[in-house]
Amino acid sequence: MQGETPPADAPAAETTPVEQAWSLAEDAPEESSVAAAEGIREAVSSQNETVGSLLDTLDAVALSLGDMRISLFDIVIVAAILFGVIFFAWFASRLARRGVRRFTKLDETQQLLAEKILTIVVWSAAFFLGIDLLGIDLTALAVFSGAFGLAIGFGLQKTFGNLIAGIILLMDKSIKPSDVIAVTDMAGNETFGQIRKIGVRAVSITTRDQREYLIPNENLMINQVENWSYSSKNVRMQVLVGVSYEADMHLAEELMLEAAKSCERVLKAPPPTVWMSEYGDNSVNFTIHCWIRDPEDGVGNVRSAVLKKLWWLFKEHGVEIPFPQRDIHIRSSDQLERWFGTMAGQKSEPRD
């Protein structure tokens, strides 16, 4: 029929574009694995040919791994971006902390909480900024999100738990810097210490003997904590004293109160009190109750000052401080009598 195209010409017409596209794909230059490196190199080359040739030389030294090409210039750019991002995050977080500290309306705990939140925000922003500058496609990381979630769930569970626990402790103000809490060492001995710092992972507590305990934040959340300065820094302490049964009890009580009131760190209000606690084996036992407002400066030194003053007051007024006394009753026996007889005979013999 007229007007029809011969069948032999159709395959020839289709082959030419395919071969042309294949040849173009083979001649396409390899792109750098770092998107920012290619843009920087082109921008610098257009401005200065000498520097551009130097960058081309660095870019020529490359290592190809499959479809990935990593040049010496890429490594330099990656190192510069990482250094710049880390420096930016450090400087921005430090600037944010200074800005928070200027807000006088916030107390110390609120300032610390704001600093931690701002630090997390700044470093998160720096992380995504670095990914964007390096040209990493976030959609490519979606494949590894499941494995990354499992790693956080199993490997970093305690770390993230302590981080969240520290933020919660600062939000509810149950434990804050400068609080005095009771701690227990590895031997089971209980002592007290002052909170110096609430960190991302643990709370730093310093005792009177300058031992520093690092207690994980999560432990302070789930365990019972004895906080001496939660609602008030006033702490009542006890001083145990024993006097003789022959002593004047009214005079002894007055001297105990005088000794407690003479200590500078003992508060005037509430005033010290003296209680008779028990009739002991060798003494009548009393307990002096006195209040202090600075337990972080020590409790034992206040007890020592009261006892020293009371010692001299008792000496001055003739109040006896008893000591244990025991009466020994020896039962008679034949062996004991023979032993006494032998000892007496040895003493009666004249010495040469």
Question: In words, what does this structure look like?
Answer:
The chain is about 50% helix and about 15% strand. It has about 350 residues and is α+β, with helices and mostly antiparallel strands. It folds into three domains: about 30-135, no CATH class; about 160-220, SH3 type barrels (Roll); about 235-315, Alpha-Beta Plaits (2-Layer Sandwich), CATH 3.30.70.100.
Biggest sheet: strand arrangement: 3-4-5-6
Strand content: 15-25%
Average pLDDT works out at 76
Helical element count?
11
GO molecular function, one term: mechanosensitive monoatomic ion channel activity
InterPro entries: LSM_dom_sf (IPR010920), MS_channel_1st (IPR049142), MS_channel_C (IPR049278), MscS-like_channel (IPR052702), MscS_beta-dom_sf (IPR023408), MscS_channel_2nd (IPR006685), MscS_channel_C_sf (IPR011066), MscS_channel_TM-2 (IPR011014)
Transmembrane segments: 70-92, 113-136, 142-170
Biased composition (Low complexity): 1-19
Could you provide a short overview of the structure?
With 352 residues, the protein is an alpha+beta fold. It is built from eleven helices and nine strands.
Describe how the helices and strands are arranged:
Layout: H1 9-27, H2 35-47, H3 49-60, E1 62-65, E2 68-71, H4 72-101, H5 108-134, H6 145-154, H7 157-172, E3 180-184, E4 190-198, E5 202-207, E6 212-216, H8 217-222, E7 235-243, H9 249-261, E8 273-279, E9 284-292, H10 300-317, H11 334-348
Antiparallel strand pairs: 1-2, 3-4, 4-5, 5-6, 7-9, 8-9
Helix pairs in contact: 2-3, 4-5, 9-10
GO cellular component, one term: plasma membrane
Protein name: Mechanosensitive ion channel
Organism: Qipengyuania vulgaris
